[in-house]
Amino acid sequence: MSYLVYPGAQHTRFHHALGAMFLMQRAIQVLRFKQVAISEEESEALLIAILLHDIGHGPFSHAMEHSLVEAVSHEHLSLLFMEQLNEQFDGRLQLAIDVFTDNYHRGFMHQLVSGQLDMDRLDYLRRDSFFTGVTEGNVNSQRLIAMLNVKDDALVVEEKGIYSVEKFIVARRLMYWQVYLHKTGLVAEQLLVRVLQRAKELYRSGVTVNCSEALELFLSKNVPSESFDLNLLETFAQLDDIDILSAMKSWRNHPDWVLAQLSNRILDRTLLRIKVKDKPFDPVRLEKKRQKLMKRHNLSQSEASYLVFGGTISNQAYSMEKENINLIRKNGKVIDVAKASDQLNIEALSQLVVKHYICYPKND
Length: 364
Known about the structure:
Order of helices and strands: HHHHHHHEEHHHHHHEHHEEEHHE
Shape: globular
CATH architecture of the domain at 2-182 and 325-353: Orthogonal Bundle
CATH class of the domain at 2-182 and 325-353: Mainly Alpha
Strand order of the largest sheet: 1-2-5-6
CATH topology of the domain at 2-182 and 325-353: Hypothetical protein af1432
Oligomer: single chain
Distance between the termini: 24 Å
Structural class: alpha+beta
Strand content: 5-15%
């Protein structure tokens, strides 16, 4: 929902997938030039893995993950799509699947697809920075790729690339606060999640909720990951943002006040008020606002909770507990970038920062 804040943010995940694949081509060229052996089969697998790494995202991407399909991540759905394609292509995607799932014996390849300095992040940071106009996120992806190497089957960055890595980590931190976790985009995403929750609640209680056949299927039942068969996968593939938007256009006049209110607020951009701070909000304050809304519109506690609610957001630009971003010095010694950096804030950026928010109607 970032386009509500930054009107230029209309680019799609398809753009991102192609961009990430292009960067993977460059990374393969760089590593081969530095005498890292990568066969044609491995090269093809890397390109397939990065091209399809996000294919499991549903409508509105992360905003609605676990809303349409509960307890099933987009990574798991991506894997299901890849396995289905593997059958259609007589097993030619198997190596790509092994790389994607980190089951291939050359671990640096998985790091190129999914790591703290992978082609995914190198593309989306620069792409999102460009389309939003938030220049703080503009990383030098080409320079970072040119500095890549492999040591003991792990991805490393040459020591002279340390400043580019520092810029990358800081850029990621700033993009999360300014774009991905921007409070206006956050409240819009929360409304979108609650639209689907309310629609599901009504549908499963026997209330008519008009929408596309594909969307109706996922409103009607919970689908555990082990039950995601080919038919469900094909139905999920039919869904996109248009299904949700057209459904909300229908629901804006629904007799259920909560569903209509949520739909109208998103479509008309009359979002809830949101307040964000470092410390938890007083729960009594939130309950007073909920009680006021209940009284004004004759709502139950659960109904009012769709429009008055709180939560938390977190930001961690770099995790020292996962696969670290390691630098390699001229003497061959490998060191974590946070230890090597003369920027004291790099280690500080590895700390998880949690903020608290509350949302409620502006006039209540």
